[in-house]
Amino acid sequence: MMNDPVFTTIDANEAAARIAYLCSEVIAIYPITPASPMGEWADEWAAGGKPNLWGTVPQVIEMQSEGGAAGAIHGALQAGALATTFTASQGLLLMLPNMFKIAGELTPAVFHIAARALAAQGLSIFGDHSDVMTARSTGWVLLSSASVQEAQDFALISHAATLEARVPFLHFFDGFRTSHEVNKIAVIDEATVRTMLDETLISRHRAHALTPDHPVIRGTAQNPDVYFQARETVNPYYAAAPAIIQRAMDRFAALTGRAYQLYEYHGAPDAERVIVLMGSAAEAAHETVDYLNAHGEKVGILKVRLYRPFDAAGLVAALPLSVERIAVLDRCKEPGSAGEPLYQDVVTALFEQWEGRPPRAVGGRYGLSSKEFTPAMIKAVFDNLNAPQPKNHFTVGITDDVGNTSLAFDPDFSVEPDSVVRALFYGLGADGTVGANKNSIKIIGENTPNYAQGYFVYDSKKSGSMTVSHLRFGPNPIRSNYLISKANFVACHQPIFLERYDVLADAVEGGTFLLNTPYPPEAVWENLPRIAQQHILNKHLRVYVIDAVKVAKEAGMAGRINTVMQVCFFAVSGVLPREEAIAEIKDSIAKTYGRKGEEIVEQNLRAVDQTLAHLYEMPVPAAVSATLELIPAISDDAPPFVRGVLGEMLARRGDLLPVSAMPVDGTYPSGTAQYEKRNLANEIPVWDPNVCIQCGKCAMVCPHAVIRIKAYEPDALADAPATFKATDAKDTEWHGLKYTIQVAPEDCTGCALCVDVCPAKNKTAANLKAINMRPQPPLRDAERDNWAFFTQIPELDRRSIKVSSIRQQQVQQPLFEFSGACAGCGETPYLKLISQLFGDRAIVANATGCSSIYGGNLPTTPWAKNNDGRGPAWANSLFEDNAEFGLGMRVAVDKQVEYAQELLIGLEAEIGSELAQSLLKADQHDEAGIYEQRQRVAALKTRLDALVGDGNTATPHEASLQSDLLRLRDVADYLVKKDVWIVGGDGWAYDIGFGGLDHVFASGRNVNILVMDTEVYSNTGGQMSKATPRAAVAKFAAGGKPLGKKDLGMIAMGYGHVYVARVAMGAKDEQTLRAFLEAQAYNGPSLIIAYSHCIAHGINMSTAMRNQKAAVDSGQWLLYRYNPDKHSEGEHPLTLDSRTPKLPLIEYLRMENRFRMLELSKPDVARELFAQAQEDVRLQWALYEYLASRPVNGGGK
Amino acid sequence: MIDLSTNYLGMTLRSPLVVSACPLSEKLENIQRMEAAGAAAVVLYSLFEEQIRQEREAMHHYMVYGTESFAEALTYFPEPDIYHAGTEDYLRLIENARKTVGIPIIGSLNGTTPGSWVKFARKMESAGAHALELNIYSIPTDVHESGETVEANMLEIVSAVKAAISIPVAVKLSPFFSNLAHTAHKLAVAGADGLVLFNRFYQPDIDLETLEVVPNVLLSTPQALRLPLTWVALLFGRVHTDLAATSGIHTGHDVIKMMMAGANVTMMASALLRSGIEHLGVVEMGMRKWMEEHDYASVRQMRGSVSQMNAADPSAFERAQYIRSLKTYQPRVS
Fold it and tell me: Is A1153 among the residues known to form the active site?
């Protein structure tokens, strides 16, 4: 019996996860964007004791990688459980080996996939079908959902049908576009789920389980005699699968009223042109087809739901007989193929199944990495089919001026009806805009008959990022799953965006503009940039203004303007009657915040009540009067590529860049972050030379390398700007030099870590230090000039810097600067230190994670080079392989060094013995040695050039010699020392990459490994890793981590030949510096495990170095160095750098929300785990103290 | 047979030994030990509304901090189903203590807004508290706020709480009023059933190495007894409320002095923090010994016997005495 549906507004991840959870007993999870939320939901539900369909809470287990998750699921299925997992992209690739097995064994299973691009010339977290298409040969069903509603419905159809088909299912929907789109859907009730799942089939699955009670064996090794035949046994199951799935769809339709076909045609019954496609694009195409047919065309689309097993007959049968031309669209790229996969399959199907002469089919690519796919592009595809010679193997959505594959389209073409409210909101990550918008969608979607949709676009930077919310509301289901370009409502929640972006470009005639501004209504106009004024006048926009910051502040919600702006939206958009809307907002505030405390509710309610009195309609003058222009996205002195390509991306015009603008192989210049002036900080540090003791700590901890120090000859001050500060250098070795600490005002994020660590106090006011935060705007211009002057002051000769002293070492130029890491990041100071100490000779292998994102996410990147053009060469391979990736670099460098030396020996006579021998015997252990070797290599190159001469050779001997000279010239630079740094987070080192890391330890090769240990998967939103300490609450450990942290250092020390250090810059910066120097000096594998505070700890990032200190003082984080070289010197290799723990652990734990949360959510569990954690500290200290005090070599130290 | 029993806030207690609000009562197990060691009643640790409020705000802040900014990490924490706010733990402690021990349990409250005092007072009453102690204490730093306003606010809180609940209410005071006697009288009129003299408040220190202001909780010394002793003696018989003496009660002799000055009960924390909960037994033994030696049959007998009203030299409690004592003191030094 069909009930009236209950509606909810959720995204596809939640919708699919809910069904998967209900239908499963074992759920293996691992974080990967954009599928992570599915695992997070499962873990949260299990932690909260939510039962599955059979009244029991599923076992949710986090694995060390997707490969591990697939293995665990394979085992769980073999052992008779109903099992599922969630993944995307490279994660799915890691599951492939098991998927072949699971399918080969005819095992019912469902994996839910938020389909995502694969890393090729660059990584992308965004959606396309590259990942699922690589799984098309695994023998799994590939079932595609196009919308949030379908993601829920097909999840259930998958779980139901797999039991009958005995073929495993890959249920996928488009990453971000569907996985993260919030939409109003009809909820499947549990009774429907129960009816869909056939208990007798579940019994059959259980009966098939491996059990010693009736043992069988699976996973045999088969030989040429039978493997082939055995492979063919499964054919009937694949032949039967499409009908089984369709039957499941039909049963589902009977229960819910939502009918689906495996190949569903929509459009004119007599259509001549048809697009075949799958995934979310089908929704936009559906909408466009309706529009075009209403305007006299005869077109249609065929939505492919079932891609594997590919039912060729079913697909062809679904096409209207009238069709003459077909465009098959693939959301992936298969370079070098005869066409993309869906295209090839459709062509084959037409060839095999069409009666008579099949329609003409062309193939094209669209939408890679969530590239927009709009009605305009769909129309272009139909238009192409109208051409006498339709373009085949085309692309749509980009300008391909290299291969000329792209179809032109009219960006102004729109099919959206007027009945849909289309609203755009520009917010700052921290201001709560997205949260408020999600709430508005809920209010409208769940309390009115209207449909609602929300999609959110985020920045690639982690600090100070802009969010753009795209919201639609209307009386009919919303299929427009592309960004809004015709907005009848635009809200700008942060006035600064108006200065930088053409915020009103997408507003339509007669639309409404809502602006949060500090100016009173009568003063707003004159403070708008010219382009905004023009839009307002040309489009006759109504403008409403409010000082939301003030209202929020008065309500006690400093900085969180979300509620205020939400009230304004409802007040001026007219989506709901004003009073009704306000009542709903208040109701929703009580629901959302009620459990968090009355004061939170009260603050929000106060904000609601005070809003309308401060909301004004701004009078619009008759003419443009602006004096302000948009601030350029990139500085004028940027090189052409940076301006023309990266600058366009920064200006949000990257979509318009043609193929020819892009590097062909993913290679980009380094040091480009310096050209992007983000001006994020409200306050910046200001140096007080009179108080400063010149310790260098402020520069050392600065996560963004915006505090720089130079010591220099006094004459460099000759043309200094008036406000440029300098004082005498205090270091005795710098007698006679001047000293300056300079801040880069436009690059600073305002995190204030520098101020917190400054040890110098002003003697007349203890709240002042040698560096103090002051408002940025009044300082900006002067400090910009000072910064420019500062940068041209010569660097101190590296040979003269005593690197073991922080105050001297910190004058070394950072070659990692202005990254997009979170303000106050705990990782970046370590990377910056590497770049200062060894950057001019470092190759960096960077595991995927936070560091690869703030280190390598376009448009601009932080790894830089010095005035000689040298600097860290950086690359990211994958998440799981980083140790091996770095080892490969080391082996390659070593080989080329070896080869260069061999050539040098062979050419000694020609080159000259003295130069050759000095090159071969060079001591490069310090800066001076490296400097001299560089000089020798320069001399060698000069000599080689002279010897090569004009390149003419007379004899074979001369030709051979010539070749060797040229070969030596190619590899000569390798004669100068190169350091390999392998860097990444704990998710890589402790979990997914541990196997490789372990192998690199065992290799004995001279690589330096830095693990920036945030104790969670930070980049994907704080999931538990094996580095997570006991009692911490994290995603995937919603109930608090019950077990202790893995001791990675101890494992590495077990080899005996690995240098190991545990450091925490905020606790003992000198020990950190020493460890980095020793690790680099050690001729073998070195491992530095660095405590990296993180936004995912729930801490005050401005004072986060205190958390590091507390972690060390409490004994939670032990500082030590294990140097195998000491052993050979008869000393004990292990040095404990921590003192006996003196701070009760609970005092440290209570400083961080990750622990505090457990006390608030599960006080009894917290008491027990906190006590165990204190015991961990005691035992760890006892063990290390014991080890460090053991005699070495029968009585050494 | 020596009778140690006394009355306080309408309750008959087996002795004047009451545990004052301190961290020891955070654990139920300690409350059981207090009863076993002879405590006649326990004032639970203070529920600081501001602290709970700050913790919840901090929790909310860190739950949303950095969220919805970056596509891969839209949040950083799982959202728990339940938050145990500090108040719930406190109320649960009252309930559990009521179930586990037989001695009266007195709730202690430090609120921030007039409404919140009443709200939490009601909750504590519902949870089963026998009585309530209002820990009305703040440092007025506004130069425009008069002493009258401060006192008026205090009286308003007491009246409001009294009107809202039916269990007895004591008020814990600071000694700093222009005329404490008048303030005490007005509190009695406002409905206070008892006055607790005095609050030991937070007095920060300066760390000379870091130049930072640091919290520095000082435990009371026996000398601290003098101030409450003076005021108990002065107020006894003058205000119509019970009197509880706290600060500097470390021995049986101290208790007896306070009883003689006019206290209904004495309250201890520092001595227990220093010497352990079982120190209550030592104090009781000291009382009994002194009473046996001096042939006292009950504490009721001695209560107020050396208050100002009943002292041989009433002026000895007054200010003039201070001058004389200095005079008598000086020659000994020289």
Answer: no
